[in-house]
Design a protein that fits this description.
26% of the residues are buried. The protein is α+β, with helices and mostly antiparallel strands. It has helices spanning 65-77, 99-107, 162-175, 180-186, 193-204, 210-220, and strands at 2-3, 21-35, 38-46, 52-53, 56-60, 83-90, 123-131, 144-151, 191-192, 223-228, 239-243. It folds into 2 domains: 2-175, Nucleoside Triphosphate Pyrophosphohydrolase (Alpha-Beta Complex), CATH 3.90.79.10; 187-243, Winged helix-like DNA-binding domain superfamily/Winged helix DNA-binding domain (Arc Repressor Mutant, subunit A, Orthogonal Bundle), CATH 1.10.10.
């Protein structure tokens, strides 16, 4: 189910000058946020078409690849200096299909020829981003009707190989869950051990034993204990932690 929180309409309705972008290469982003024990991802819905996709964009001819990825993320979330990881490149022949974008252009009354920039086969350089769910203001683009958060267990059908991109990104996130950047970007600055374990279980999709998890985290040397959480019941209050710098 989509989460309409912070949903914004498209800001720029002018068609870009496609000649300013690199042909045949795109950037697609799996943008993850964590909220209320749910792992969420941003999904675009193209206008009047029922076609869903991961947010993405194109690389300007005078632009570094990393700069393009950061620009695209800023355009979609309103955030800068967020964690980005380039995890895979997708270029199967299935990406040669122009049917989805032809439908989008047709349904939105855009005139085009068979050599339109959007109808070519694109090689996708894919990134995953970890963002603070509460700070994001999702923004749609010229051809999109919405850009919204979806729980990963309730995703719509995605165009072309975008579901494969999402699944590969999720696996990379799971493989790197013990790296400091995951918790630092998805959790509050301070958290309880229970909140940290809930994040792990949500991302991994499995339950973990509390005592074993607690021991593993404390032995990792990554956590700093700050004191007990203020609950009004000191003898039952859990300890609060932060990641070490």
């Amino acid at each position: 189910m989509a989460d309409k929180k912070n949903h914004k309409r498209v800001q720029n309705t002018e068609e870009p000058d496609w000649d300013t972008f690199m042909p045949g290469i795109s950037v697609d982003c799996a943008i993850f946020g964590y909220h209320d024990e749910e792992l969420k991802i941003l999904i675009l819905e193209y206008k009047n078409s029922g076609i869903f996709a991961l947010p993405g964009g194109f690389i300007r001819k005078d632009e570094e690849l990393a700069d393009a990825a950061n620009r695209i993320l800023f355009e979609r979330t309103g955030l800068s200096d967020i964690y980005l990881n380039q995890f895979h490149t997708f270029g199967s022949l299935a990406r040669a299909s122009s049917d989805p974008m032809k439908k989008v252009l047709n349904e939105n009354k855009h005139s085009f020829t068979d050599d339109h920039f959007l109808l070519q086969r694109f090689i996708s350089v894919s990134y995953y981003a970890l963002v603070d769910f509460r700070k994001v203001e999702p923004v749609a683009d010229l051809l999109s009707d919405s850009c919204r958060w979806y729980d990963i267990h309730n995703l719509p059908e995605l165009m072309l190989d975008h579901h494969q991109i999402y699944e590969t990104a999720l696996q990379h996130l799971r493989d790197n869950i013990d790296k400091p950047h995951v918790g630092q970007n998805l959790l509050d600055d301070t958290f309880t051990m229970g909140e940290l374990q809930s994040m792990y279980e949500t991302i991994l999709g499995e339950k973990l034993k509390r005592t074993g998890f607690h021991r593993k985290m404390m032995l990792s040397g990554r956590l700093q204990r700050l004191g007990k959480k203020k609950t009004g019941k000191a003898h039952r209050a859990p300890y609060v932690y932060a990641f070490k710098e």
